Amino acid sequence: MNHQPLRAACMQPDAAMEAVARAHQTRLTKPPGSLGRLEDAAVQLAALQRTARPRAGRVWISVFAADHGVADEGVSAFPQVVTGEMVRNFVAGGAAISVLARELGARLEVVNLGLVNDPGELDGVRRAVIAAASDNFCNGPAMTPAQLQAALAAGADSVAVALADGSDLFIGGEMGIANTTTATALACALLGLPPERLAGAGTGLDAAGIRHKASVVARALQRHAGAGDALEQLRCLGGFEIAALAGAFIAAAQAGLPVLVDGYITTVAALAAVRINPGVRPWLLFGHRSRERGHDAVLAALQAEPLLDLGMRLGEASGAAGAVPLLRLACALHATMATFEQAGVSDATGARG
């Protein structure tokens, strides 16, 4: 598919429609601001979708799966073969995101970008294989320039399919053993923070395992200290699925498709996308606050306030999917609550409809 350059202009939210939506909220039968973040979400979607009736009915979820060379450093509690096994589980309907997508009536796409335990051709899986895994970034860059471009393009391809399907909202998810290590290395580079600040339990590491993960990230940061801009940091320290997420978020913003961001790993990808193209930021809503240690720092860098805080840290887009019903409720309230005039109820000034 044809893709715009990464730094091409993104669509602009409709400021006039945002003002109309905000004014409409003040006329609904409630004290102004009393529905809190639900009001803000409806107004943001109205501006992004350029409509007085924002919607979140048609949801597209792309889960990008890839393996990581840094798994060789023993940074995960699970073996690397699990990535491929989980891809099978996604399309068999047994994974958390599979259940959530069914319950939401969302379209679920799984994208195989390169797995050590490759399940081969599977219904429901799009093959966009780049290599069996990224390279171990302790020894060299995680990706070649060509591999980075292929991963970014795979993300943009998913957005193109979501747009063709008439989606109202795009959600990106990830699966890849060792990818919290990769996300931590990239976040440290983007934020200038030490790995001890961001390294967390991931798949269930104990304190010693977290210290080891931090030491691995520190080695990688030292090796790639000369990486320049965010795109080069993504190439040296990222992974195929993180790059695909960044490419998807940029493509969505350029095309005018709102994005609901998931947890730690996808938020790091979102930060990379915003650093590459700042016009991406207005198109991002944030689904949940992950229990993973580094998520708060990345959210703070994006000035993001997630909709949910449920102690989740699974990934797979599960947290974002869990926030979709809130967005749907926000849209329903915005569209169908009576105004003071319609209901004949006095507003704060004592005026009646």
From TrEMBL:
Task: Tell me the active site.
Answer: 316
Q: Which GO terms describe its biological process?
A: cobalamin biosynthetic process
| GO function terms (MF aspect) | nicotinate-nucleotide-dimethylbenzimidazole phosphoribosyltransferase activity
Pfam families given in the database record: DBI_PRT
Sorted keywords for this record are: Cobalamin biosynthesis, Glycosyltransferase, Transferase
Can you say what this protein is called? Nicotinate-nucleotide--dimethylbenzimidazole phosphoribosyltransferase
What is catalysed by this protein?
5,6-dimethylbenzimidazole + nicotinate beta-D-ribonucleotide = alpha-ribazole 5'-phosphate + nicotinate + H(+)
Describe which pathway this protein belongs to, using the record's wording: Nucleoside biosynthesis; alpha-ribazole biosynthesis; alpha-ribazole from 5,6-dimethylbenzimidazole: step 1/2
* E.C. number(s) listed in UniProt: 2.4.2.21
Q: Please give the family membership noted in the entry.
A: Belongs to the CobT family.
